[in-house]
Amino acid sequence: MSSTTERIEAAVEDGRAQSPRFKQRQLAALHEALKQNQTAITTAVEKDSKCSAPEANAQYYLTLDAVKNFYDNPDFEKLLEDEYKVAHQKDNPNRRSAIGCVNVIPDASSLLYSAVVASAAAIAAGNCVMLEIKQTLSELSSLLRKVLSSALDNDTFGIVETNTLAQDFKAKHCCVLDCSKGSTRSVAAIVDRSGDHAKAAKELVDARMSFAGKSRYAPDLVLVNEYCMEQFCKAAMQAALPYLASSAASGRPVNGHVTATRKLNTNDKNSVVKEVNAVTLSSGDGGFIALARDRTDKLLSTKIGEPLLLIHPISSLDDAIDFVNTSSKEPLQALYLFSAPPAAKYLSQFVKADISFTNHIPIELLLGSVPPRTASLGTESINSLKAEVHPRFTPEMFSIPRPEYANHARSPISEHLTALLQDGKQQSASIVSKLSQATQLKPLNEPQGGGIGFFEQGIITGGTLLLSTIVGGTAIAVRYGYPYLVRMLRRS
C-alpha cells in the first residue's frame, strides 16, 4: 500500500474532508490553480485532443465554471441549522452523508473536464478523492498531476495509477466512478416535418463536427422524415461547408468560422468511414455527410467518434419510435428532437433516452464526459446517476441519504395502530372502524367520457350518411311523387 492511500484511508476514518469550510477552501485552491495555469492547460488540451484553440478554451472555462458552482453553492447558515436540527428536536429528512473516498477514473477523451469536475463534485460532497491518471505521453496528464497535487490537501486528495486501497476499506468507504463507462450508448436525433429544418441542420452539424467529431454527446444517427429529407440535406450540406472545406485542414477561417487544424483520416483502420454503405452527400478534409437507406446497415447502431453526420429516413413519428427502441437494448444516451412541441412531447414520452432536448442542443453538453448510470461502492451499485447538462457531476452523486428523525408527532394511522395493538385480542369495533375510515380511498372523480373516439366517429359518420340519404329520398318522393299520384287518381 502506498503512502498516498494510507493518508487517504486515515483522512476518511477521521472525517477530515467533511467540514464545510474545509471543502470551500479546497475548491477555492483548485479554482485558483486552474486560473494560474490557464495557458498551459488550454495548450495541452488543444494538442492532446486535436481541437481548435477556441474549443480548448471552451472546455477550460466550462470546467472552471463547474468548480465555481460548487464553491458558491453552500449556504453555511442552512448547513449549520441542518446539522443541529436533531438537537432542537426537529426532523432532518433530507440529510446526506459523504461516502468517504471517491475513486475517479477520468475519460481520456475529455480528461480535463472529467478529472477536475468529478473530483470537485466529490470534494463538495465531503469526500476524499483518489484520482487515477496513468503515466502516458499526454501533456495534459502530466500537467494535471502537477497542478492538482500542488493545489489540494495531500491528506485528502491523491493521484495514483491504480487503486491500491485495502479491500475491506474499499468495500465500506470507497465509491468507484469510471467516467469512460458511460459513453458506449448511442445518441440520436429526430427531425420531423413540423420542425425548423434549417435550424435542425445547423445545430446537428455543429454538434457532430465540432471538437474533431469526438464529443460524447454528438449525434450518432439523425432520423429525418421523408417529407422534409431534401430540405434538411440541403441545409446540412450548407451548414457543413466551414467544416468540410479544404482550408479547414490549415486552420484558416472559412465563412467566418475558425476551424481546427485537423484532417479526417479515412485510412485509419478504426475509422467507420470505410464501413459506410450509403450515399455520400458531401465530404471534405474535415468530415462528411452520408445518407443511409438500408436499415440492416450495422453503422446505424454504431457509436461514432469522428465528424460523420449519418442521416436515415423515417416515414412517421411511430416509425422513428419503433426503430430507435428496437435498435438498442439500452436507452439512448441523449435524444435531440426538432419538431413542433406536440410531436416532441410524443417522441420524448415514448423513445427511451436518459435525457432529451427539444429544438436545441446545449453547447455545454458537447463538452465533457458522460457520467455512468451508476457508481459502485464495493461490489454494489449505488446512486443511480441522473443525466445532467452542467455540471455533469454533482455532489449528490457522491453522497448517501441518511435521514434523521427526532419529532415524535404521530400520524393518525400511527395512533390508530398503536391503539389496536394495545387493545390486545378484543379488537374493539371503534378502533377497527377508525382504521377502516383512515384507509378509505377518496372518490375517483373521473370525468364522464364525453369524447368521441375513432370508431364512434365512424359510426356517426355512417349513420349521418344513411340518414341523409333516407331523408333526401323521402323529400324527393314527396316533392315529385305526390303530385304524380294525385294526377293519376284524378284520371281514373
Automatic annotation (TrEMBL):
InterPro entries linked to this entry: Ald_DH/histidinol_DH, Ald_DH_C, Ald_DH_N
Domain of life per record: Eukaryota
SUPFAM superfamilies (UniProt xref): ALDH-like
Regions of compositional bias (Basic and acidic residues) in chain numbering: 1-16
UniProt KW Transmembrane helix keyword: yes
Molecular function (Gene Ontology), one example: oxidoreductase activity, acting on the aldehyde or oxo group of donors, NAD or NADP as acceptor
Transmembrane stretches, start-end: 459-482
Annotated segments matching region Disordered: 1-20
Keywords, sorted A to Z: Membrane, Transmembrane, Transmembrane helix
Keyword ATP-binding set for record: no
Protein name: Aldehyde dehydrogenase domain-containing protein
